[in-house]
């Protein structure tokens, strides 16, 4: 079975629940990965029976012995999306068992493991979305619950994000390599939804040439030592729309926060330091920023030093629940950008209670940006609904924090992800694959390593924009203040 998490630079103890999680994952992968014989035939029958209810779009599934086409002939003239077409080629029978037991998540894993090929992934996602009621009914089947309910409850409920597992989860995602992220992020190293002037401008112009000098530098062809200046996969002489959009998003968040000279700012989730840098450029403030990734801390501190701001920005390798007692009610502002997804649903009240604890009792303001509704890229993560965020803010702060504004920038994630996907694909062979082989030789080298690299590549490609494009997923910026705080004023147009 594929290793779900790579070995990372961080080493730390794991809780009992993390071992239970690994055991359940291994057992489930073993059962699903076998995927042949009578179980696979039963699964194929169950899945095709459910798909026979499909009404929208056109889906063709090709197996070695059969071709399925949906909607079935005579299913009615109510196809609302007749222009949507996609074809699946089943490579391994485990595709059927994954689909039967885990529905759309099962398809995601089957695709990542190369058990199914797709001619047009985007069209397929759109077909899944317009027929999502069907997928929901498949996911709720008795067989699905038998395989997934108990492991999911044990490993994703109230114990899943204990302090020891939280750092494991974040390290697994971010400690892969700074160089890998430098390959496809813009030069600001922002790994979150941007705000573009035009949502679809990239679709109306020819794609850029695959060659560019920045990728060569990252690959070591022209001096990898310059990588800190080369974190964009667009020529520096050209306008980088992604970088501009990320700066626009940061200025919007800073405008909502209304940071002033003399303020002390807490950032939960450092990224690679760009928000802290821009905050200190916008006002004569100080920032304490928290990360659970040692790789992020190293590069963030380097970037902060290059900006000449080390005396005003402190990067802490620290869980937000472990802040020192001296920080209580010490911060004028709290900002957290796309970190809340990794908190865990059972810990949202605690998360907001901690923000309430850290903010000054008079005049404190917080701004968080977060993906809303679930996604599968973060191990142990959960993407809450906006209503859950609001209710958790109220409950966690005991009504001492109130919502000032909520905005959904989710549609901008579609283009953000297209930009990342293009850059990721362009630099995969020259930058990402060599980096993974170098840093994880036990996983990525040799004949088996080629398979692991392909799984890794397909996983990132799968993390696409369709959910955001259709508003199935959102990305909300929520601003909140102390109750009865007149000093904040009105900030509608920030």
UniProtKB/TrEMBL annotation:
InterPro entries: CFA/CMAS (IPR050723), SAM-dependent_MTases_sf (IPR029063). Gene3D superfamilies: Vaccinia Virus protein VP39. It comes from the Eukaryota. PANTHER family: CYCLOPROPANE-FATTY-ACYL-PHOSPHOLIPID SYNTHASE, FATTY ACID C-METHYL TRANSFERASE. This is Cyclopropane-fatty-acyl-phospholipid synthase. It comes from Exidia glandulosa HHB12029. The lineage of its organism: Eukaryota, Fungi, Dikarya, Basidiomycota, Agaricomycotina.
């Amino acid at each position: 079975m594929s290793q779900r998490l790579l070995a990372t630079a961080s080493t730390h103890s794991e809780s009992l629940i993390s071992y239970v999680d690994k055991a359940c994952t291994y057992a489930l992968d073993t059962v699903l990965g076998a995927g042949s014989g009578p179980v696979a035939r039963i699964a194929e029958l169950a899945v095709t029976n459910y798909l026979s209810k499909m009404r929208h779009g056109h889906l063709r599934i090709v197996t070695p012995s059969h071709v399925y086409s949906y909607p079935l002939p005579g299913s009615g003239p109510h196809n609302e999306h007749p222009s949507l077409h996609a074809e699946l080629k089943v490579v391994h029978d485990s595709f059927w068992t994954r689909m039967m037991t885990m529905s759309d998540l099962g398809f995601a894993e089957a695709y990542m493991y190369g058990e199914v090929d797709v001619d047009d992934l985007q069209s397929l996602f759109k077909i899944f979305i317009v027929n999502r009621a069907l997928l929901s009914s498949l996911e709720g089947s008795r067989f699905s619950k038998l395989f997934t309910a108990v492991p999911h409850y044990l490993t994703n409920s109230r114990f899943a994000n204990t302090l020891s597992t939280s750092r494991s989860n974040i390290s697994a995602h971010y400690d892969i390599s700074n160089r890998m992220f430098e390959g496809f992020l813009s030069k600001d190293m922002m790994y979150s939804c941007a705000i573009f002037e035009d949502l679809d401008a990239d679709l109306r112009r020819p794609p850029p040439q695959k060659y560019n000098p920045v990728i060569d530098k990252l690959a070591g062809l022209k001096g990898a030592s310059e990588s800190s200046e080369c974190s964009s996969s667009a020529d520096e002489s050209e306008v980088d729309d992604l970088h501009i959009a990320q700066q626009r998003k940061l200025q919007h968040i800073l405008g909502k926060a209304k940071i002033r000279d003399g303020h002390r700012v807490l950032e939960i989730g450092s990224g690679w330091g760009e928000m802290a840098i821009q905050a200190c450029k916008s006002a004569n403030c100080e920032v304490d920023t928290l990360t659970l990734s040692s790789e992020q801390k190293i590069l963030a501190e380097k970037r902060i030093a290059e900006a000449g701001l080390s005396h005003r920005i402190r990067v802490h390798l620290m869980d937000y629940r472990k802040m020192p007692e001296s920080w209580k009610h010490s911060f004028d502002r709290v900002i957290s950008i796309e970190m809340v997804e990794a908190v865990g649903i059972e810990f949202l009240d605690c998360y907001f209670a901690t923000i309430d604890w850290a903010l000054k009792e008079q005049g404190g303001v917080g701004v968080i940006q977060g993906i809303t509704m679930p996604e599968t890229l973060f191990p142990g993560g959960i993407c809450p609904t906006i209503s859950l965020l609001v209710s958790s803010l109220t409950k966690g702060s005991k009504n001492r924090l109130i919502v000032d504004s909520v905005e959904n920038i989710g549609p901008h994630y579609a283009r953000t992800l297209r930009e990342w996907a293009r850059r990721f694909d362009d630099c995969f062979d020259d930058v990402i694959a060599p980096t993974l082989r170098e840093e994880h030789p036990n996983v990525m080298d040799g004949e088996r390593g080629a398979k692991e690299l392909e799984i890794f590549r397909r996983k990132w490609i799968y993390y696409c924009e369709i959910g955001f494009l259709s508003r199935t997923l959102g990305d909300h910026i929520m601003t909140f203040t102390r109750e009865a705080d007149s000093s904040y004023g009105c900030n509608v147009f920030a």
